Amino acid sequence: MKKVFAFVAMMGLLTFGVNQTINAQETAAPAAEEVAEDNSEAVDSIAAAEPAEEEVADVEEEKSSEGEGLHKTIKVKFIEGSAGFMSLVAIAMIFGLALCIERIIFLSLSEINSKKLLEDIQAALENGDVEGAKSICRDTRGPVASICYQGMMRIDEGLDVVERSVISYGSVQASNLEKNLSWITLFIAMSPSLGFLGTVIGMVQAFDDIQKAGDISPNVVAGGMKVALITTIFGIIVALILQVFYNYILSKVEALNTDMEDSSVTLLDIIMKYNLKFKK
């Protein structure tokens, strides 16, 4: 009886094993087909990507050629516009931009958190620490701190003296903020003027060519007219660029002047409170 049961169990295990093998083969076949399909799709995608890469390379080459073309065009037009006058316009632009950048850096460094500075000064004066308030002003950059320091230096001489000192030194600091602005306006005016001068000279050249050729055909006039127009265009462009920087600088100067005036009024109020508290 035991042998019968063992035989039946063995047959059952063999049947189960055969069925599992068949099922595994059946599931493996579609998986292999899917892998093959995936491989074929990958090959197709790679083949499709190659033209796309070629198109991207073509676009990049076109962009680089356009950039080189723009640079080359500017250089050619610069030479065609009479190198002498175009060089003068370029020099005006270089000096004007240098002054604009210098002013922007100076004004940016002059900007501070004046509210925090005045709060620190007030906190020091409330404790009667005049030297500490002077140190705070001395260790802070910018025109606002300089004005406050001048006021603190005369804190024992009365509020009227402090006020006159702050106003006088404020005028000095305002003049420092506006330094070199007249030179920027000079280059703004010079750039289109040089362009117009090149225009007049180009027109004279055109009439000279007409006189020499004894003809007023377009080919004779075109050379001088081209010089006239190119110099005018470059002069106006330089003036516009410098004007934008100049207006930006003026806005920063106005903001700093307003900050100095507000800080001066606040400083006088702080000093008055200090006098009422410690000079009774």
Secondary-structure map with pairings?
Layout: H1 2-80, H2 83-110, H3 114-126, H4 130-138, H5 143-153, H6 159-177, H7 181-213, H8 218-278
Number of helices: 8
Radius of gyration: 41 Å
What is the residue-mean pLDDT, rounded to a whole number? Answer: 75
Low-confidence stretches at least 5 residues in length (pLDDT < 50)? Answer: 1-59, 61-67
End-to-end distance, in Å?
125 Å
Q: Tell me about the largest β-sheet.
A: none
Class of secondary structure makeup: mainly alpha
SSE run? HHHHHHHH
Give me the count of strands: 0
What is the molecular shape?
rod-shaped
Beta fraction of the residues? under 5%
Q: What fraction, in percent, of the residue positions are helical? A: over 70%
Notes on the structure:
The protein has 280 residues and is mainly alpha-helical. It is built from 8 helices and no strands. The longest helix is centred in the N-terminal third of the chain and has 79 residues, at 2-80.
